Amino acid sequence: MVPDINPPGGRTIGLLKYLYRTSDIEAHVDPHIVAAYDPFVADPGRHPSATLTGLAADLDQWVDALKDKAPAKHVWHCSVRTADTDRILSDEVWATVARRIVNATGIAPEGDEQACRWIAVRHAPDHIHLVATLVRADRTQPRRHKDAIRAQAECRKIEKEFGLRQLKKGDGTAAKRPTSAERRKAERLGQEATSRELLREHVHRALAGASDEAEFFGRLASEGVRIKKRVAPSGDLLGYSVALVGDRNAKQEPIWYSGSKLAPDLSLPKIRERFTTERNVPEPPALMQRAGESAPGRARRFSAEALDTALTVIASTDDEAAAAHIVGVSEVLDALAQTTLGRPHEELRDAARTFERATRSHIRGEQTRMYALRRAARQIVRSGHALGHGADGAATALVLDVLILAVVAAGHWHAAHQHAQQAEAACQTAMHLRTAYRAVAASPLAGMRAYGEKLSTRTQHNQIAAIRSALPELASRVQNEASWPALAAMLDQAQRAGHNPSVLLRKVAAQRELNSADFVSEVLVWRLYRLDLVPAEMPTTARADKRPAKQGPHIPQPAARSGSEAARPRRR
User: Fold this and answer.
1) Other residues' Cβ atoms within 10 Å of the Cβ of residue 304
2) Spatial distance between the Cα atoms of 393 and 383, rounded to a whole number of angstroms
3) Are the C-beta atoms of 411 and 430 separated by less than 8 Å?
4) pTM to 2 decimal places
5) Tell me: the pLDDT tens digits for 299-346?
6) Are 274 and 325 in contact (CB under 8 A)?
7) 3-state secondary structure of 246
8) Domain assignment of residue 230, given as a range
9) What is the number of domains present in the chain?
10) At residue 559, what are phi and psi to the nearest 5 degrees?
């Protein structure tokens, strides 16, 4: 159950006209009052003689009594909405909800005969609108300090008592939610989200890896976003606002949102903190380019290295560094979302939107610690779009494999610090990333499996011996996984390059525990891929093994999986 308190307004009649309007708003059905400060309030939705003008005058009685001393913004408006999966509540239940919300927020404390006048209007199955005027009968204004936080807390209690979906408790660091009016406008315009949400996404994309303000504003402009800069008389830039092209108010003026109104971390001073921390940091060593590797593929391999380091930091006890690295992970995710083509694009975009909530908490991140991730994001953006197959597909699967672990670690970090909403956002992000990984990894893994299945019997025996020598406790499990041939192919390529498969397996297995992996063979494939021992793209066919055979005991082939097991969908 989500309460949404809008900024105070100045016209009671204007809000009432919207709430009772049905002619051009399909979602408005049977508007009527379910609760009010007085049970005998005349309801225009139920009494033919009642009028909106009369109802507005009734609510405004104490406001009008103050005459020129009345507050200009005297209309309090709060919508309360149930989740899509919740049952439809009766009018009686909604009346109870309304009374508890106005009590919790200080609008009408229970038993207070001097409280504000208010009503609760229901015009749709899943929500109500609370309307109150902010002058009490004793001509004072209500004490509604932190009313939004108190409304949220009361809704958490209501959810539990009425068996509704229980949302996570917030900590006041979330970006401002769109208002009801913004959502309605987005529906009318056919937008996939509100202007506020779309602009927040544009700003995050432009910020991902940007090296300075010029690059940041240049990216924003290239995405078609209107930009208005606030400049001091000295010429110094003080702030910025953004607007969507075509988004205008009743006067046909652009509707501007300052960066701080989009999200707390998108104000110009906060953005500048990310830029200034990098100026005196040396560039990280460049990765060697593999044969046949594209610039996007190389950028993704570099990002995998940076994410692996971030994973270690997030799991450490250095909270300031962990908070900063979580922000850096978000920038890499934003960069991947805007440069990955094909089926995974939408999943990555949804993942980036969702993870945005996990980047903010009351723990202030040490910005100097995330420079490697910002530069990784910059390389991804500047290298251009990556194809979803071949070497690009393998590199994208590689970085997603590590990114999933980093996001899961971020979720654990937030959960340990009682950041419920952030932990939930990280969990949902991981689900999106797993879907994207499956779509991206299918092609390169299929090529590796095809190569591995064509290896000679002697070579396959050698690779089985290597896995049993290096990982005796996991060998049987690995051999029975669908991706075992892909791992055998990687080991064969590494061996042809002059490396010992058993030594390599011990090396990559020591990087991090493997027992929690869904598919150990896939994890080992990507860890080996990162070692720069194999070409960017697997050969299409296995070459004949002309190396002298080593005598040894016969090692049986792994047992074939049953038909039902083979058909079972694999989880990442």
Assistant:
1) 23
2) 15
3) yes
4) 0.74
5) 998 899 999 999 999 999 999 999 999 999 999 999 999 999 888 899
6) no
7) coil
8) 189-276
9) 4
10) -65, 140
